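STRUCTURE:
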């Protein structure tokens, strides 16, 4: 009986030992698998960054020898290298993170070779050069246009329109600003302006006729012309005035209105075979929205213009496909303005 119990205990001990050994081997295998995965990931990232570095170096060489006229002779090399090896913050942070992971693995294993790319990894670098633009698409253009860099067509048009026209024509220099001319117009003609600012129309169709087509607006006498010397030329600045033929709160209001001329120029460019590209036509809505957004920001940032312009950004057609009358937009604005004033007074 005692012998049987001893044999039974011995067998139980052996089974427990086998279970511990199996569990230990599984844990060891899992740790090794995770470690191998991290080492491989570090090697892949190092290979990608090395391939990217070599490609940038090659492109810098092409730039240096082929596009000489785009750079000043004394600053050509430094400018090309600075442009060629500029990385986004995301790329820099990712590289730093993987460098830290690589050092951590090296300190744990004591073997630097475990995270250094071998020839088996390096031979795949040509695949990176072949497919590195795989993620590029029309959506990439859209994303680039939305970014605030000031280099796209939309921001360029908005900036030129602001600095070359609005910032010159609207602020007061010698009692000749827009608000002053509106006040003089009201006194002379015994009328009231609904908005004492320049109303600029920015429809998504980008087309505004020379004389506004509206059942609710009638063209009136324009504001007094202002002349400003610009680069040695006396440039006239004119603003048309329209009368709202439907009364709001018992009055027929007047407005200084015009379309955003850069948008009309862009519309014309899209209709021309000389200048139109498929990117312009495909991304015209992106350009329209970016133009309106950037123009609004420029106007708001400048103290001389922030109270001189009222932008109306709208769809040219309603959900049923009918043309939108800008007169309705002005009526809605006046009603909302009146309701706001009444709420404040009450």
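SEQUENCE:
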């Amino acid at each position: 009986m005692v012998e049987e119990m001893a044999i039974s205990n011995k067998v139980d001990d052996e089974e427990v030992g086998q279970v511990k050994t199996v569990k230990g081997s599984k844990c060891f295998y899992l740790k090794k698998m995770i470690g191998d995965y991290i080492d491989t990931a570090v090697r892949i990232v190092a290979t990608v960054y090395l391939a990217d570095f070599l490609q940038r170096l090659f492109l810098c060489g092409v730039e240096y020898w082929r596009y000489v006229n785009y750079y000043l002779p004394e600053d050509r090399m430094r400018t090309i290298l600075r442009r060629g090896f500029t990385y986004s913050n995301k790329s820099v942070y990712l590289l730093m993170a993987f460098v830290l992971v690589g050092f951590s693995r090296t300190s744990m294993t004591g073997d630097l070779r475990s995270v250094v790319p071998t020839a088996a990894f390096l031979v795949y670098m040509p695949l990176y050069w072949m497919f590195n633009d795989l993620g590029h698409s029309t959506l990439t253009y859209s994303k680039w246009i939305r970014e605030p860099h000031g280099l796209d067509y939309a921001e360029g048009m908005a900036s030129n329109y602001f600095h070359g026209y609005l910032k010159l024509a609207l602020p007061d220099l010698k009692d000749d600003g827009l608000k002053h001319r509106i006040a003089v117009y009201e006194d002379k003609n015994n009328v009231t302006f609904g908005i004492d600012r320049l109303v600029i129309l920015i429809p998504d169709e980008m087309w505004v006729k020379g004389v506004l087509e509206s059942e609710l607006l009638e063209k009136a006498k324009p504001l007094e012309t202002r002349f400003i010397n610009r680069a040695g030329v006396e440039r006239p600045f004119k603003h048309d005035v329209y009368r709202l033929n439907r009364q709001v709160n018992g009055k027929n209001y007047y407005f200084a209105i015009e379309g955003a001329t850069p948008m009309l120029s862009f519309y014309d460019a899209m209709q021309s075979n000389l200048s139109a590209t498929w990117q312009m036509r495909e991304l015209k809505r992106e350009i329209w929205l970016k133009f309106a957004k950037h123009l609004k920001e420029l106007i708001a940032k400048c103290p001389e213009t922030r109270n001189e312009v009222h932008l109306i950004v709208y769809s040219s057609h309603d959900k049923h496909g009918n043309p939108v009358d800008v007169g309705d937009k002005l009526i809605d604005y006046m009603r909302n303005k009146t309701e706001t004033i009444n709420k404040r007074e009450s």
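REMARK: The first strand starts at residue 193 and ends at 203.
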